[in-house]
Each structure stands twice: as structure tokens, then as C-alpha cells.
Amino acid sequence: MGGRLARVFRTFNVESRARREISREKPRPAPRHHLPSLFYLPSPPHPLSLLDHPGIKEEIYRKDDRLLTLLKDVYVQSRDLPVRVKDGGGEHLPHKQKEKRLTKLGHLGDVDVKKVPKGKISIVEALTLLNNHKLNPQIWTAEKIAVEYSLELKDVNSLLEFFIPFTVQEFPKETRKAIKS
């Protein structure tokens, strides 16, 4: 509550306060203390006061022909060594594009993955094949799944062994009473 109240006071009329602060005349800096003659340091002339002298303005805008001719005679040649490509054995360069296959399912339209590299499956396909294997293990064997989805047999066996889809179980009413008492 206190933070909200503080925020209201902080943001109240902030634009007009900012304009007033910007338009206010800036304070003058305090005068410097006069140094004793023991520490005499000549103060540098103010840069704007130098521009008021006509001789200095002419010197600034005058072109020096001798320097211009010397500048025109300058020619720069680049002699860098040719860049060598590090030979890393080609492990970073793709040798060939991976083969892709179309996915089996997809009900999400544009969000669905359309193509998957061979040897991999999408999440929708993984859940589907796990559910099919759970419901009909005689039909959906590991070998059939490996052929159907272009997977290796050892990967399919690991998938079927270690990943189990969720199941929903409803308990009868008698069991609920037995649990409560």
C-alpha cells in the first residue's frame, strides 16, 4: 500500500515539474580561489575567446597548398598475406543433407512439425506410438515401430522400456469409502 501511495506522489504532475526544471536558469559556478604567487599556473584562454580574433579564424580556414600536394602523392597499398582457412578435418562442414520424412500425425495445423530427420520422431508421434504399444503390444512390436518411424531397434526398445504414457484410473465408490474409514 505504501508503494502505491509513494508512486502516486512521484508521478503527480511530472511533466510540468520537468518543464519548470528545464526552463529554470542554470546556477553559476562558484568563483575560483585566487592562488598565491608561489603556485602560479597560467589559466588557459577560453576557446571561444580565441575565435573572436580575426587572424585565428583565417588560420583555421586557410588551405595549405604544400600539405595538399603531399597528401595527393600518398598512395597506400595493402599487402596482407592471403587468409588461410584452418583445416579442421571437415567435421564442421555438412557432407550431405540429412534425409527427412513426413510426420505421421498432426492435428495442430501450422504449429505441427511437418518434416522430421530420419532416426528421430516428434513428440506427438512418440506419445502415439507409446499409446499404441500399450494398447496392442502384439500388433505394435518394437520391430514394427522401428520400420514405421525409421528408427533404430535399440532406440525403440529403450523408448518402450523407459517411457510409459500416463493412465487415468477411476476408483469405484466403495473403494473411496474404504479408504476414508
Would you kindly provide a brief summary of this structure?
The protein has 181 residues and is mainly alpha-helical. It has helices at residues 2-11, 14-23, 47-51, 54-61, 65-73, 123-135, 142-148, 153-162, 173-180, and strands at residues 100-102, 115-117. The protein has a domain at 120-167.
Could you explain the architecture of this structure?
With 181 residues, this protein is mainly α. The protein has a domain of 48 residues. Helices cover 44% and strands 3% of the residues. The chain is built from nine helices and two strands; from the N terminus they run αααααββαααα. It has a two-stranded antiparallel ribbon. α7 crosses α8. It is elongated, with a radius of gyration of 41 Å. 4% of the residues are buried.
Q: What is the mean pLDDT?
A: 77
List the total number of helices.
9
Report how far the terminal alpha carbons are from each other: 47 Å
Strand content: under 5%
Characterize the overall form: elongated
DSSP strand tally = 2
Main beta sheet: 2 strands, antiparallel
> Compute the gyration radius: what is it?
41 Å
Q: Spatial order of the strands in the main sheet?
A: 1-2
N-to-C order of helices and strands? HHHHHEEHHHH
- Alpha-beta classification: mainly alpha
Assign a percent range to the helix content.
40-55%
Low-confidence stretches: none
Seen as an oligomer or otherwise, the chain set is single chain
Pfam family, one: UPF0240
Family: Belongs to the NDUFAF4 family.
InterPro entries: NDUFAF4
Protein name: NADH dehydrogenase [ubiquinone] 1 alpha subcomplex assembly factor 4
